[in-house]
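#lab-general

N.A. 3:47 PM
ok so I finally got the sequence cleaned up, no stray characters, all 84 residues accounted for. can someone with queue access submit it? mine expired

B.Y. 3:52 PM
send it over

N.A. 3:53 PM
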Amino acid sequence: MPITLSSIKHQLDSKIGENIMVVAQAGRKKVTRRKGVLRETFPAIFVVDLDQDENAFERVSYSYADLLTKSIEVKFGDEEVQAS
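B.Y. 4:20 PM
back already:
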């Protein structure tokens, strides 16, 4: 079954309120890791409230297309949401 943006949103809808780690490509050979809580999902984006001890800002948003194109990876504990 092909992965669609709506199926990715549906997977994340069931994880609202859980701890999350987002691993994003920040350029050549650079990776950023952000920890927080999955707060909300919207039709095109999802919002993560970040851990204030590690980050200078409160929240960040990503699009489902970022997951689909593998620009970011999302991990909940030991589990990983795959878009493959």
